[in-house]
Each structure stands twice: as C-alpha cells, then as structure tokens.
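Usage

Read records sequentially. Each one opens with the input sequence:
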Amino acid sequence: MAEAEENRSKWIKIRLKPTEQKMLERKYKKTTSRCLSEYARALLLGKPVTLLNRDRSMDEILEQLLLLRRELNAVGNNLNQAVRQINSAHGSINDHMLSNLLQVINGRLEPSIVEIKERMTQYAVLWSQKLRVGKA
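and closes with the structure output:
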C-alpha cells in the first residue's frame, strides 16, 4: 500500500534584495513552472527546471501562414457569395448563366489558390530544412 503524500506544511522564509528578487522572477518567467514557489523548490531541492524555448527564427513563417489563412478565408467567402447568387436565382438560372458565373468564380479563385499552394510548398521546404538542421 502506497504511503499518502504529505502536504507541504513547513515554511522557509528568506530575505532578498530588490535586485535579487527581480532576477529570481525574471528567471522564473523563463521556465515552465506554474508558480514561483514551484520554481524555488525545484532549485533548492536540485530538481531539473524546464526552460521555455522559443524558436524566433520561425516567427516570419508563422506570420506568413497567418496571412495565408486570411487569404484562404477570403477565398472561401468569395465562393460562398457566388453560391448564394446561384441559389438566389430561384430556378431561373440557365446553363449559359451558370457557365458564366463558374468562369468568373474560377477566374477569381484559381490564381489565389495557385499562389497559396506555391507559398505553402515554399514554407514546407523551409520548415523541413530547419528541422533537418535542428536534428543534425
């Protein structure tokens, strides 16, 4: 039978200079610890502390991916508007009108879709190169 885990009931009080406190808080904020006391316990007891690691080199790629997402949303909105126009014809649409509308949709959407695919391919290549460099 496993022993029940003890509650933390003992206090240790320490005094710090304001600069020491700022330094401690700055270091704590760079970790995955949920609170300062958790971080301090890990340091005092010699347990490993996990630091946050952010790859700033990927910021540009992430910004571009966000722009691509917006562009895809715009393409979807255009497509929805075109479909609404088709549905609002109330059966009076003929094959010629439908063909013209589909050509307009294709003319507007196709260049955007091609550009998005090309840029996504470029980012995938760049991403895979960064992953290979990171593993080497």
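Summary fields computed downstream for this record:
- Residues 58 and 127 are 8 Å apart (CA to CA).
- The helical segments are 18-29, 36-44, 59-87, 95-135.
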